[in-house]
Amino acid sequence: MPFIHVSSNVPKTGVDTTKALSTFSKSMTLAYGVPEAVVMAKLTLDEMVVFAGSDAPSAYVEVRTIGKVDKEHNTINVQALTARVTEVLGVSAERVFIVIDDVPSVNWGVNAVTVDTILG
């Protein structure tokens, strides 16, 4: 059930949003070993953002998932996600801010039930 939300002050014009969303969605399947059928990706551009006192292009990436949130996975996934954001949006790596949250399955719902009931 991974979810990724990339928000940025990069202008929407010039960004292939369909390709960007596909890239971010696929990156989650690789990072968390789940089928793309259970991944949700959201992209918000043209945001008003100041990072490190500057409005230069930057991105905030929010990842929510169930499990695989630890030092080992986070180190690998932050590197990979930073690379994808840099590649797709042209934001330099030092201006990509990432937060990864481990959501208990009882706090995640889909198709009118909580995920813990699906996982057993």
UniProtKB/TrEMBL annotation:
Family that this chain belongs to: Belongs to the MIF family.
Reactions accelerated catalytically: L-dopachrome = 5,6-dihydroxyindole-2-carboxylate; 3-phenylpyruvate = enol-phenylpyruvate
Organism the protein comes from: Globisporangium ultimum (strain ATCC 200006 / CBS 805.95 / DAOM BR144) (Pythium ultimum)
UniProt xrefs under InterPro entries: Macrophage_inhib_fac, Tautomerase/MIF_sf
Predominant cellular place of this UniProt entry's protein: secreted
Protein name (Swiss-Prot/TrEMBL): L-dopachrome isomerase
Matching SUPFAM superfamilies: Tautomerase/MIF
Enzyme Commission number(s) of this protein: 5.3.2.1, 5.3.3.12
